[in-house]
Write a structure and sequence with these properties.
- By secondary structure, the protein is of the alpha/beta class.
- The protein has one domain (about 1-115, about 125-225): Metallo-beta-lactamase, Chain A, CATH 3.60.15.10.
- The chain has helices spanning about 35-40, 55, 60-65, 75-85, 150-160, 175-185, 210-215; strands spanning about 1-5, 10-15, 20, 45-50, 70-75, 90, 95-100, 105-110, 115-120, 120-125, 130-135, 140-145, 165-170, 190-195, 220, 230.
- The strands form 3 sheets. A 7-stranded mixed sheet has the order 6-5-4-3-2-1-16. Strands 7-8-11-12-13-14-15 form a 7-stranded mixed sheet, covered by helices on one side.
- It is globular and about 45 Å long.
């Protein structure tokens, strides 16, 4: 399995027979140079979106068209994306599980954030914000999406028992590093934690030091580097 950060909250996850893009954002993303855009989406088989904010969906339709990868996620959000040209995937909802290829499962779980998009000058509700549980290769990944600290993490950790956590942790719009560390040690038993939604802008955390110092002993915090594969 390779987990590849594309900057901000965007990831490329190579797992089993799938190349899953999560919230791929290129336009205005200062972390991902244009020269790396093609490599970031090469061979993509599926796109998952967590919510409707521009820094998560601005490029989804184009990437879907360019790669042929279907887009799946919250019912209202992906119905809109499908209507403007994204390849049709699964429009599902909380508690739902879909198959990605033959051996990967994606389950939608709650997040605590907001989800709107600006369409023709009007801000529209795009259904609830979400996170995902991704299972394959004998591993379980919790992708928090943009979220604050929330009590739902307790049942998510207990029910799915993820061993890898991809946690939004930059603060201001999401959990900060201290909150992410609290979540990791209180609600989960991760072997590996990968922070995201940080370093993009000055208002966000620039280092994961507080997360590294706050997790339980034996939990490995890996600060991702853009387009460098984390192989697990």
């Amino acid at each position: 399995m390779n987990i590849i950060w594309l900057g901000h909250g965007s990831f490329r996850i190579e797992i089993e027979d799938q190349v899953v893009l999560v919230d791929p954002w290129f336009t205005g993303n200062p972390m991902l140079p244009e020269a790396q855009h093609a490599a970031a989406i090469a061979g993509a088989t599926h796109i998952l979106v967590t919510h409707g904010h521009f820094d998560h969906i601005a490029d989804v339709v184009k990437i879907s068209k360019d790669t042929g990868a279907p887009v799946s996620g919250m019912y209202e959000l992906v119905q809109y994306l499908h209507s403007i040209g994204a390849v049709e995937g699964a429009a599902f909802n909380m508690g739902g599980t879909i198959a990605l290829g033959d051996a990967v499962k994606a389950s939608m779980v709650p997040a605590s954030h907001s989800s709107t998009a600006d369409i023709d000058g009007t801000r529209r509700y795009m259904g609830s914000e979400a996170g995902y549980i991704l299972r394959g290769e004998g591993r379980t990944i919790y992708i928090s999406g943009d979220t604050g600290l929330m009590a739902d993490m307790a049942w998510i950790g207990d029910y799915y028992k993820p061993d890898i956590g991809i946690l939004s942790a930059g603060g201001h719009y999401t959990m900060d590093m201290e909150m992410a560390a609290y979540a990791a040690r209180s609600y989960f038993a991760f072997n590996v934690v990968i922070p995201c939604h940080y370093r993009t802008f000055p208002s966000l955390a620039q280092t994961a030091e507080a997360l590294t110092n706050g997790v339980l002993p034996g939990t490995s915090v890996i600060e991702p580097q853009v387009m460098d594969a984390i192989t697990l």
